[in-house]
Amino acid sequence: MDADLPPEVALLARGLTRIGLRPGGRLLIVLPGRAEQWLIDLAAASLGAVPAAVDPATRPDRLRHLARHAAPQLLVLESAAELARWRPILADLPSLRRIVLVDDPAPHELSLATVSLTQVREAGLLTAPATGRSLPS
Is 30 helix (H, G, I), strand (E, B) or coil? Predict the structure, then answer.
């Protein structure tokens, strides 16, 4: 898998795997047309996951509808401010297991596992590219 991917995409794919994304898993990417949106999308697709992008400017009632329909295991948001906007919707997403924040460190007050994109990249560094096995510590 890794040999055919650009290095950043391969790194993110390994990191997404380490945080629990699996083939067939769904993720919702809510970023305003940033490079990270496309990198995460490609990384997820390379794993056989199902990425879906949503415009962050979408009205909250429409966001709720789209998110319920997508039933994501992973939600990718730009920042803690965007997370605050999503808080009322999170309870309606029973499949959601993890949130990735692109710009901000993960807040610790959520019971749901929230990580930063930096942490996803770091997790990708812990996996050997050629074998997919964890590197010795």
Answer: strand
